[in-house]
Amino acid sequence: MDEQREMKVKNPWHRPVIILIIVLIAIGIVVMVATAIIQNKPLHQKYKYGIVLDAGSSHTSVFIYEWPAEKENNTGMVRQKHACDVKGKGISSYSGNPAGAGSSLTDCMAEAQKIIPVHRHQETPVYLGATAGMRLLRMEDSSLSDQVLDAVERSLQTYPFDYQGARIITGQEEGAFGWITVNYLSDNFRKASGTIGALDLGGASTQITFVSKENSENPENSMDFRLYGNPYHLYTHSFLCYGKDQVLKLALAKKLQSLEMQEDVLKDACFHHGYKANKTLSSVFNTPCVSEKLADSPKSFIHWGTGDGVECQNAVRKVFNHSCCQYSTCSFNGVYQPPVEGHFGAFSAFYFVMNFLNLTNDDLETAKAKLINYCSTPWEEIKSSYPSVKEKYLAEYCFSGTYILTLLEDGYNFTSTTFKNIEFIKKIADSDAGWTLGYMLNLTNMIPAEAPDTPPLPHGGFVSLMLVLSLLIFSLVIVGYKCFRRPVVYSSAPKDIV
Ligand SMILES: Nc1nc2c(ncn2[C@@H]2O[C@H](COP(=O)(O)OP(=O)(O)OP(=O)(O)O)[C@@H](O)[C@H]2O)c(=O)[nH]1
Ligand SMILES: [Ca+2]
């Protein structure tokens, strides 16, 4: 009988406290495993893809985007997987041979076929958006621009992807989708920190887009969005002909029309001293951006650099018309613009040029002074300092840099103070800044008006819960171990001690 009682007392499994501990440990483990499974489920995602062709005035780029299939409505999920530069010029340059525009895309589209897994090809949307080069061609001859678009459409339809159309996008779309791209990639739609404005400088047009508190005085410059539960009132404007290639023609045409031309020589302060090139008049006047034609003038001229940064600034200022403004405030050419607000991301040629000139971290006054110095460097010295840079780009950096600073200061009314709020960027989180991502997000409905479901727990909450549960289990194991090891007290013990 005594033996039986002793056995009963010795068996720890019969103690209610031990049973309770084991049950709690089991519950803890089940909760931990279940939470980990739910939390990490999206890690085992399959990817989806989308293709957007940016048919710009100077060249075409093909962008491939990817995103986790089950998280497409969460902000920040879409990333650029690959970008391919189409060889040759932009599609608008194929007006004399529209079929060539279609076949120019083949190399980059073949790359896309290799990069995107075959089983996803059929469901991968393809969009082509053409910008200012095609807007200009349509202004000149709409049947030619239609032929070029038909040719690229026929070419894109030959691939196994889900072709969704090729069209000329509007300047407002180009500005607004560039703004969506930079803010999506910076994750600003989820953060309380607000958004950044977008500055895009192409070859044939330039866009400015930012959130403005002002009531818009012109509905054409105003766009309203509701994204992830927040309303945004955007100011946007696209200046056709104010991309850096077209504005150079505009500036040259103004000089050619003035008295600056003597004996077929055009002296130009925006080109380096020692720069000399034979150019045809048609290379300047072959665009609807330059309205007046020259009468009784030679067919070609010598473009002669004098390399004077200050004089270049004065010449560039002449491409902006400040004489007419029917609103409370304007940028230039009578276009309504409220005062710039907040931080800006400036990309495409804003970045190429400012980065080459090493001006991306300077304040406005320093940038201007450095540029004047750069412009005064002789052409031979420039060429030998940068032997690997394309000569066409190299020759134009003085002009382009001067145009950029003048556009920002005299055009958009940035001051020395607000200029500091501009960041010159090429990529954000490995994706190029530009309108294409925003365009695709919009067309695939991946930017919901209301905030989508968030994960069951925020990351911090998940980690804290795991930590608390681990500590609890650990303590329970210790307590259980101590109970298990505690010597059994026998009724005869006191006797032994005594
Ligand atoms: N310096 C330099 N210039 C470049 C580079 N890539 C493009 N450009 C030039 O920069 C200008 C703007 O280029 P993009 O932003 O591609 O212009 P785009 O999209 O073709 O033109 P839009 O239709 O007006 O938007 C053009 O004059 C290009 O020739 C580069 O890597 N370096
Ligand atoms: Ca562009």
TrEMBL record:
- Where found in the cell? Membrane, Caveola; Membrane
Which residues are listed as membrane-spanning?
A: 17-38, 462-481
Name the cofactor(s) required for activity, per the record: Ca(2+); Mg(2+)
Which terms are listed as keywords in the entry?
Answer: ATP-binding, Calcium, Disulfide bond, Glycoprotein, Hydrolase, Magnesium, Membrane, Nucleotide-binding, Transmembrane, Transmembrane helix
How is it placed in the membrane, per its record? Multi-pass membrane protein
Q: Which InterPro entries match?
A: GDA1_CD39_NTPase
- State the Gene Ontology terms under molecular function: apyrase activity; ATP binding; GDP phosphatase activity; ribonucleoside triphosphate phosphatase activity; UDP phosphatase activity
Q: Which residues bind ATP?
A: G203, A204, S205, T206, Q207
Active-site residues, record numbering mapped to chain: E174
As its record notes, the protein acts as a catalyst of: UTP + H2O = UDP + phosphate + H(+); CDP + H2O = CMP + phosphate + H(+); CTP + H2O = CDP + phosphate + H(+); ITP + H2O = IDP + phosphate + H(+)
Q: Quick one: a GO biological-process term for this protein? A: nucleoside diphosphate catabolic process
One GO cellular component, as annotated: caveola
EC number(s) stated in the UniProt entry for this protein: 3.6.1.5
Q: Subunit composition?
A: Homodimer; disulfide-linked.
Q: Which family does it belong to?
A: Belongs to the GDA1/CD39 NTPase family.
Name the PANTHER family for this protein. ADENOSINE/GUANOSINE DIPHOSPHATASE (PTHR11782), ECTONUCLEOSIDE TRIPHOSPHATE DIPHOSPHOHYDROLASE 1 (PTHR11782:SF32)
Function in brief:
Catalyzes the hydrolysis of both di- and triphosphate nucleotides (NDPs and NTPs) and hydrolyze NTPs to nucleotide monophosphates (NMPs) in two distinct successive phosphate-releasing steps, with NDPs as intermediates and participates in the regulation of extracellular levels of nucleotides. By hydrolyzing proinflammatory ATP and platelet-activating ADP to AMP, it blocks platelet aggregation and supports blood flow.
For this entry, the protein name equals: Ectonucleoside triphosphate diphosphohydrolase 1
